């Protein structure tokens, strides 16, 4: 389905919103079919277009970076993925605030990655001191 959507919109201008959405669908389909290297290339291209034509669409940019981090992690490069996850979390805090639902979700994903890597010295304070109080405030 991802390729079909891409072929439908590939001829449109780079600034066309449907072309960008098709790139996201194609990248997602490639990731789900365990073709993460190819998916990363699609997500990088999408990210470049987002930053060029829609730099104000921070949510889309961060969502695309999250997809890239997930692919990188699935390729067995968790340290590289963690670095990107940290950047995404920091940008969510800066743009949405610590108590926003998306920020808390991103922070929770970061804590899970830190736990996977046994980096409890960073995971525990992040969860205990930042995420839990933020989640309580947002209820």
Description of the molecule:
By secondary structure, the protein is mainly alpha-helical. It is 81% helix and 0% strand. It contains seven helices and no strands. Helix 3 runs antiparallel to helix 4, helix 4 packs antiparallel against helix 5 and helix 6 packs antiparallel against helix 7. The longest helix has 19 residues. The protein is globular and about 50 Å long. The N and C termini lie far apart (39 Å). The model has no long low-confidence stretch (mean pLDDT 93).
Runs in which pLDDT lies below 50 for 5 or more consecutive residues are none
Radius of gyration (Å)? 16 Å
The number of helical segments is 7
Helix content: over 70%
SSE order: HHHHHHH
Rough outline = globular
Instruction: Decide which structural class fits the backbone.
Output: mainly alpha
N-end to C-end Cα span: 39 Å
Number of strands: 0
Main sheet, how many strands, which sense, barrel? none
Beta-strand content bin:
under 5%
Overall pLDDT level: 93
Q: In a few lines, what is going on in this structure?
A:
81% of the residues lie in helices and 0% in strands.
Which descriptors would you attach to this protein?
139 residues; mainly alpha; 81% helix
